[in-house]
Amino acid sequence: MINVAGSRLNAIGNPVDNHKNITPAQCRAARALIRWSQTDLAKASGISVPTIAEFEREMDRQLQPRTLRDLRKALEDQGVSFSFDESGFIGVGVIPRSTSAPDPYARKG
């Protein structure tokens, strides 16, 4: 959604800030939505699997801003959208951009 001022809004109508770093939960959710493993994300982002695993397990180690940007960009390149707002709402959505893998949940027949 977009408000009168042209700002993007989340599902409950609050402004979103799409320049924040993604959270570990958003990263896990995004991968699940596009059916990517940590290895898939590592290949697309150039970030190592152990670094992604530690981030997603919410270890105390802070990732560099560039690393977080690379993870986010790799996911966004697959149609993932992240949203944040002032009330603390965080969201993840996806518009699939490729159908390279068959849908395992599709009905046959």
TrEMBL record:
Residues 28-76 form the HTH cro/C1-type domain. It comes from the Bacteria. GO terms for molecular function: DNA binding. This is Helix-turn-helix transcriptional regulator. InterPro entries: Cro/C1-type_HTH, Lambda_DNA-bd_dom_sf. It holds the Pfam family HTH_3.
